[in-house]
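pasting for ref
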Amino acid sequence: MKAPQRGFSLVELAVVLAVGAVAGLAAWQLLPASKDVADGEPVQQQLSMAQASLEGFLLRNHRLPCPDIQGAGQESCTDVAGAAVSVGRLPWRALGLPQGYAHLRYGVYRATTPSDNDLARVADRYQPLLPPTAPAVASSPLNGLDLCVALRRASALSGASGSELTAGGVRAAYALAHPGADGIFQGDNLTGFDLPGRAQDANYDDIVVSAGLPELSGRIGCPGRLGEANAAARAAYAAYDLDRDADQFLRFRSMAYDVRKTSTQFAIAKEVMAGVDIVIAGAGFTTALAIAANSVGLGFGVVAKAAIPVGASAAALVAATAGVISAVISEEKAKAQFEGAQTLKEEYAAELERAVSAATLADSKGLNP
């Protein structure tokens, strides 16, 4: 006899179908949210990669790239109707990015008034104040410090003019916009850029990122590098001032040494004259002795009178000799002081050369490590 076959009862089948329906409904409700998360993460990654590529381009080329208005992924740096192109698409090909980045909207600060602060153009904006003795150069090397000056000058401007790049009314160095899931730019992104972080709604799903002027300046290290370059230039000028002081001191010591040498020569001449005087006085004394020997009664007076010049001449010779000794000592002291001033001058001259070299190196290094 066969055993009876038993399947699902109608009640059990109804329970299984109900559970499956609830699970399916829950999955259907969660599907849009999971899709949004999956779509949102690549957008943020793409914008982050685009930002990194822009700033890498900046460090290599000392400027930001021009926007692409031709649709070929290359920079469009030629002015249009006499004005620089500041907004277009991301020049993905020039940045070495895949074509999937072509849909990103890109803008760069290119204002040229009241001063040349075009961040997409390399210009000699930073010129350190070096001493007159520094090697003459036509201009400073073009590097990231020139861009730093443009960022600093643009940051210091009050208000925003129509020629400047802004994101939501805030002055920006560059801005990027993604059109969102619908692929259509909305809000201010139609002609410019919205403020980053604007809330999304049924009429707006764009995503914007930007870098403010001070923000980008700090991110690429402008404050520190400009500070180092300016400090090196000031140190070079301080070394120049010390070198000039040492030069004046050397001139003074040289003159003092010349005076002492002349004084020694005069002292020697005076000693020679005193020697001549004593010889003459001695000859007179000898003559007086001869007269005294051949005369009667007058010899003592003549001899005594002739002895006075001899004594005076001898005293003068002693004084002159002492003067020579004193002059020679003073000359040696002046010589030592002159030689010390020479050594000091050489040290300050070497320090000036080192300081100028350090300032030139800081200028030429730019933003490089």
